[in-house]
Every structure is written in structure tokens, then in C-alpha cells.
Amino acid sequence: MKKQPKKSQKTTHATKPKHKKKSIPTGTTPSSAKYGAEQITVLEGLDPVRKRPSMYIGNTAETGLHHLIWEAVDNSIDEAMAGFCTEITVRLLPNFTISVEDNGRGIPVEKHPVTKKSTLETVMTTLHAGGKFGGGGYKVSGGLHGVGISVVNALSSYLRAEVKRDGKLWVQEYKNGNAINTVRAKGTAKGTGTNIIFTPSTKVFTVHEFDWNYILNHLRQQAYLTRGVRIIALDQRDAQRTKSHTLYFEGGIASFVRHINHNKEIKQETIFYVEKERENIKVEIALQYTNEYKEFIATYANNITNSEGGTHLQGFRTALTRTLNNYARKQGFLKEKDANLSGEDVREGLTAIISVKLAEPQFEGQTKSKLGNAEVRPVVDAVLAESLSIFLEEHPRDAKEIFSKCLLAAQARQAARVARESVLRKGALEGMTLPGKLADCSSRDPQESELFIVEGDSAGGSAKQGRNRQFQAILPLRGKILNVERARIDKMLGNNEIKNLIIALGTNIAEQMNLEKLRYHRIVIMTDADVDGAHIRTLLLTLFYRYFPDLITKAHLYIAQPPLFRLQKGKQITYAFNENEKEKMLTEFLKNIPDTIKAGKKVPKIKEPTEAHSDEEIGVGESVKGISIQRYKGLGEMNPSQLWETTMDPTTRTLKLVTIEDATKADEMFDILMGSEVAPRKRFIQTHAKDVKNLDI
Questions:
Q1: Is 455 a catalytic residue?
Q2: Same-domain pairing of 123 and 182
Q3: Element holding 119 (H helix, E strand)
Q4: Is residue 697 one of the residues assigned to a domain?
Q5: 277 domain residue, yes or no
Q6: What would the pLDDT profile of 114-164 be if each residue is shown by its tens digit?
Q7: 579 and 452 in a common domain
Q8: Residue that finishes a domain, picked among 420, 450, 484
Q9: Catalytic residue among 235, 345, 528, 671
Q10: DSSP string for 422-448
Q11: How far apart are CA 285 and CA 254, in angstroms?
């Protein structure tokens, strides 16, 4: 989750000019209006990257920083997919430095015929220079298609490239993307390979720390998608506490499916897996059915995550529905009078990984979230239909379990349709019958409107009084909503609190969701800063993740950050959001005791920040007024003005934007925390119990 920057609501007004505007003779223009050759800026080499880094890596915060690692790793993965690399080592080194080493062919070092420089220097300092163009170097590849490693170089304060080729170790160093010496041989070397060591520029990036778990999860995904490659991850930032993981999965994406389902109740014992190449497109599919109500399908093209699917997903869905219906008719699972199973029916409880590799992938958008190659759809369709038909014939017991699951889903779908029609009436969605507890805002412009989902009537009352009625709506919830991770949609729609929320949003739900009808472009979860509040927040996040995923991916869902403490010393008032902040503020208050304290008056010793203070402990003597501390047990304890000032005022509040960085990890976490299996949740609690501080009982 990411914090939303504070936004100012102040408006500025134009003032009248103090001087008269000079007239411009006919046929002339002011110098500022000239538009000629001198106004055209030409950025050479890697200057465009340094000028606009976000165009190449998304942003200059955590995501962009780690993207540099992905680009270096992608080059090594490309070597592995081409059959020349079997091992990749990623090291986190001291002083904000990363090393990515492989045993591939090594970047060529001989003079390039076009640039007349070493090929290594050409690749490292020139955009769109690499083996991914022209089809000679790589049959398929990921990354930024030839700009990746040069972008890494451009945004690094220091980079060192080491290449093993022809029995020698070739080295070149760069500073801010510019070569500081020529490519030179430094002794002999066994084998071949490339090692890129780089230090991201602290002037470019706002985050100066790598996230070990984030890196490990990404590398694990790449190891699953590239069967047979060994990825070694080493955290060597602290010499006393080195971490090491070796990631190797002979089963590839079939192992990936097994990993995703390891905490779930399995319906189909044998994982279906197929790997075939047709029309120069390599298709890999693995799938398995579980007893869950939700589907999980992840799609990849050239090892790049396609969060919005694309043509490979379309081909998969079409073939899956058609093949299962054909088999069901043939085996008598479906009678002549029965309707066909729908796409929803055959995907309930399904876990599937779809990976395609092709020479010229076409993605929709800069983020490559959707594959657009039309030729991929019929290839995936044909490969899955043919192989799944054979699998069902060869595994009759698994086939029976799959169809019992699908038929049960079809019955539930009919019940859900009746429930949905009773709740999601056309009039309700158009705002004609909004929930009675909803305190709506005056504005009808969704872009400026925001909905606060509040815990309880008490907090709802404070929020309604403290809000800005123009653009802020309040919806109080009574108690804890249903855990939708354990319920089908028909049962979910019978829950009044969820029903009210769906109607208030106006978007419909699940497959019928229409984001264009969203009534508020900011939905803010505002719960108490205690354990119950965290539980309610998790239940709401589960609902949004499972049934309103577009609200998350399109950046509409936020979490409010109410304070836990109010500290007052005289007229000075401040708020703390956790115990650590409270202790720091106490320390600052006590440091600023006036020097006019009379001799002989005792000043209390400042306690360590980890130890709590009571009002008696922080009293500072007879002549100095004590510090008043108020702990908010809930939002309802704040008066409206305090709630507005700390949590709802756009000029002072802090909101956390809810995002999904790793869909596989997010799905696994929701399943552990909110699923029906108790054992995984117990293990999670035992593992992380020591991390919980200041727990309210």
C-alpha cells in the first residue's frame, strides 16, 4: 500500500496586471512565441532517460528502483530461454549496490561495425542497441526490448560490467551512464558469462533501500516460468547476517500451480500440464481445480506478467469452456435437456498459469499488462483443447471431480442470479434507492467525490458532522461484514452491510461490474486503530480484492490513517499514529522544558522510547504544567473537528493507496488469512507473533 501525497484544496485567484499590456505590431510575434529550430532540444545518448526516468521505469520510488534489478535479471533470463544460461546469481551488496551474474554467452566485446566502439560499450550506452532486434540474438525475449541495460546504466551513479569471453575477463566502468575507461582485459577467466554490478543514483531515486522479500518473490516467479534455470539470491548487505536462497523448479509452471494451491483443498489430484510449440509460438499451460469459490489465473508473455490478460487468456477461456462441455455431453454428465456450463462455472476453484513465448510480442500500454497479438489466441485454443481432451480421457477420476465441482458451481450460479437480481435492481444502481444510512455528498461529479466506509454508528456520527458535505459521503457499517473468502456470491448478497455498500458504489459486482458507473472515485476505508478495526479493514479488503478488483487496479481504494494518541502541553497539541511516534513526541516535549525552572525542582528522567509513560510519570514538577495524553480507543471518541483535522481534511490527512504488486502473493495471503483452512493461518500467526507490538487485548 502506498501513501497518497497530501493535497491542498486552496484556490488561487488571478490579479489584475499593474502595467498596461504592450501592443505588438502586425506581422510580428513576441520572442516567447517564436517556434523554430532553436526551440527544439535534442537529447543524445542516455540523456532522455535521465531527463524523464519515469517514462522508462514507471517511477523513481520503490517500484522503479527494483525495476532496475528486473531489467538486469531479464537479460540473463533471455539467455536462459535461448538455451545458453543455466545459473543466475543476484547479490545485494553493501552501499546500495546490486550484482546480477549469469553463465550465459557474455555480451560481445569486439568493435561494433556501426558505432566503431566496443559492442559492450554500445549496448551499455545506447538506447535500442541489443541482441533483441533483427532476430539474430534472441528468438524470444522480455525486458524493455533493447533499452533495459542501458536504462540501468543511465540511472546508476556507478556501474561495472564484467564479461567472460574467449578465455578472458573483460571489464568496463561507467559513471552516470558515461564510460570512464575503455573495455579492457583483466586476466584470464574460465567459461562465459556476464556480471553487471551497479549502484542506483541517490539523486534519481527517492527510496534508497532494497526490499529483500520483494526481490525474492520476483526471482521465485522467474524461476517457475523458466524451467531448469537455477537462480541464487544472496543478501550480503550485512556481513554478519547473510541470507541465501536457491530457486530451482524442474516442474516449471506445474510446480508454480502446486505452490499456489499448497494451502487449499484439492479437487483434482493430477496437475494438468502441457508444453507445445506451434507457428513459432511456445505455449505452456498448467491447471488444477480446488474446492475454492474463486478462480486464480495468471498470464505471462515472454515471462512478463500480463495482469489484464490478453489474447492468450481469451484462447484459454474459450478452449476450456468448449472442451469441458464437449466431454460432459459425451460422458453423460450433462443431459440433453441441460444447458451448457458457462465460463464462470468451469472456472470456479480453478488455478491456472498460462505462459507463452513469441518473437514479436505486442502489448497494450507501457506497462505491458495486456497481450495484443491476435495470432496467439487460436494457437492457445488449439493446444489446450487437444491436450485437455486427452488428459480427461486418461484421468477419469480427476475428470469426475472436476465436473462435480463445475456442476455445483452451475447450481450456485442460478441461486446467485436470483439473489443478484433482487439486490442490484436498475433503479438502485442509478441512485434512486440509496441505503438509508448513507450520508451522501452534494456533488454528483465522481472525480471529486469520496466515500468513507466507517466502523459503527458512533464513528459515523462524528464523520458525518466533521466532513465536507460537498464532496465527502459517509457509510457506517454495523459490526463485521461477512468473510466473502468463505462464501459464494448468493450468500454474500444476503448480507445487509455488503448489500448497502454495493448499492452505494453503483458499479454492480464481479463479472457484471461497470467501473464507469462508480459514484465515488476515492473509496476510503476508515476503521479504528485497534485490533477490531484491523479485522474489519481486512474483511473489507477481502471483499474489494475478490469482487471489485478494478477499484484496486485503477487506484480508487484507500485506507485512512487516524491517530492513536493526542498529546497536549499547554496550547501545543500534536497527534501520534502509533506508540513509537508518541514516545518521540514525548521526548521532544520534555527536551523543551524552559530553563526558568527553579533550582531544586526535580525534572523526571526521560524514559526509553520503548517504554510507555503514564500521566503521573511524565509530570515535570510543581512549576511546569504536565503533558496530557489522550488515547483514542475508537474514531467515535474524536469530536468532529478532531476527526476532520487529523483524518479527513485533504490538506492535512494521510491516505494509503491500496495496490497489488504481486497478484500471486496477494491471492496466497488472502487465502491464508481468510480461507477455510485453519492450519496455514495458525502457522502464519506463530511465525509472525513476535512482530506484533502494543497489542490491545
A1: yes
A2: yes
A3: helix 119-125
A4: no
A5: yes
A6: 888 899 998 898 876 554 434 445 555 554 333 578 999 999 999 999 999
A7: no
A8: 420
A9: 528
A10: HHS-HHHHTTSS--TT-B--S---TTT
A11: 8
- Grid cell for residue 432: 434512486
Rounded distance between C-alpha atoms, residue 582 and residue 604, angstroms:
17
Amino acid code (one letter) for 537: R
Mean pLDDT value across residues 192-213: 94
The string of pLDDT tens digits covering residues 50-68 is 888 888 888 899 989 999 9
Q: Please indicate whether residue 662 is annotated as part of the active site.
A: no
Does this model's pTM top 0.70? no
Query: Of 227, 247, 267, which residue is a domain's last?
Result: 247
d(CA 663, CA 684): 19
Domain membership of residue 132 as a residue range: 48-247
Q: Are residues 380 and 445 in the same domain?
A: no
| CATH number reported for the structural domain that contains residue 384 in this entry | 3.30.230.10
> Angle, to 10 degrees, between the axis of helix 663-674 and the axis of helix 253-260?
30
In the numeric block, which cell numbers belong to residue 507?
458499479
- Number of domains observed in the structure of the chain: 4
Active-site option among 47, 532, 550, 637: 532
- Cα 257 to the chain's mean position, in Å? 20
The gap from C-alpha 423 to its chain's centroid, in whole angstroms, comes to 32
Going from the C-alpha of 653 to that of each of 3, 167, 260, 475, the distances in angstroms are: 10, 61, 38, 19
Find out whether 269 and 288 touch, Cβ atoms under 8 Å: no
Same domain membership, residue 402 and residue 415:
yes
Give the sign of the dihedral formed by CA 476, CA 482, CA 485, CA 489. negative
Find the CATH number of the domain harbouring 534: 3.40.50.670
Burial class (CB in 10 A: 0-12, 13-18, 19+), 484: buried
268 and 287, same domain (yes or no): yes
Give which of 673, 654, 578 is closest to 2, Cα–Cα.
654
Pairing of strands 557-560, 522-526: parallel
- Kindly state whether residues 194 and 106 are assigned to the same domain: yes
The identity of residue 130, as a single letter, is G
Which residues, in sequence order, are bridge partners of residue 197?
Answer: 99, 160
In a domain, 429, yes or no: no
Q: Are 593 and 606 contained in the same domain?
A: yes
pLDDT tens-digit series, residues 630-645: 888 778 888 899 999 9
Q: Which of 173, 275, 530, 550 is catalytic?
A: 530
- Known catalytic membership, residue 445: no
- C-alpha neighbours within 13 Å on the C-beta side of residue 77: 29
449 within 8 A of 522, measured Cβ to Cβ:
yes
Among the listed residues 186, 178, 179, the one whose alpha carbon sits nearest the alpha carbon of residue 162 = 186
Say which of 455, 583, 667, 668 is annotated catalytic: 455
**Whats the size of the chain, residue-wise?**
697
Residue 591 burial by Cβ neighbours in a 10 Å radius (0-12, 13-18, 19+): exposed
Instruction: Determine the Cα angle at 242 with ends 236 and 247, to 5°.
Output: 90
Kindly state whether residues 282 and 411 are assigned to the same domain.
yes
Q: Is 530 a catalytic residue?
A: yes
Residue at 648 is within a domain? no
Q: For 458-515, how does the pLDDT look when each residue is reduced to its tens digit (9 = 90+)?
A: 888 989 999 999 999 999 988 888 888 877 777 787 788 888 898 899 888 766 778 8
